[in-house]
Amino acid sequence: MRTEMFRYDLPSHRIAQTPTEPRHCARLLDARTNADHVVQALPELLEPGDLVVVNNTKVRAARLRG
Is 32 a member of any domain? Predict the structure, then answer.
């Protein structure tokens, strides 16, 4: 694979600057069906045998510009 395969247009106004409030209303994409949901619906979307990986890392309050 070449890195240019991953280049695409992403307008800056489409990048979230703050988290969604309330957090359980954040958007979630089901890659199996290509359907939009909210995080609150996750328990109903999971099937037996699915694996959930949770990222609990901390985020530094900083921005890189340039």
Answer: yes
Judge whether 30 lies within some domain: yes
The answer for residues whose C-beta is within 8 angstroms of residue 40's C-beta and 6 or more apart is: 24, 25
On whether the CB atoms of residues 30 and 45 are closer than 8 A, the answer is yes
- Which residue range is the domain that position 25 belongs to? 21-45
Q: Radius of gyration (Cα) for the chain, nearest Å?
A: 16
Distances (CA, A) of 32 to 26, 44, 47, 50, 57: 19, 14, 12, 12, 26
How many residues would you count in the chain?
66
Per-residue pLDDT tens digits for 3-33: 988 898 999 898 888 888 998 899 999 988 9
- The number of folded domains in the chain is 1
pTM here is: 0.58
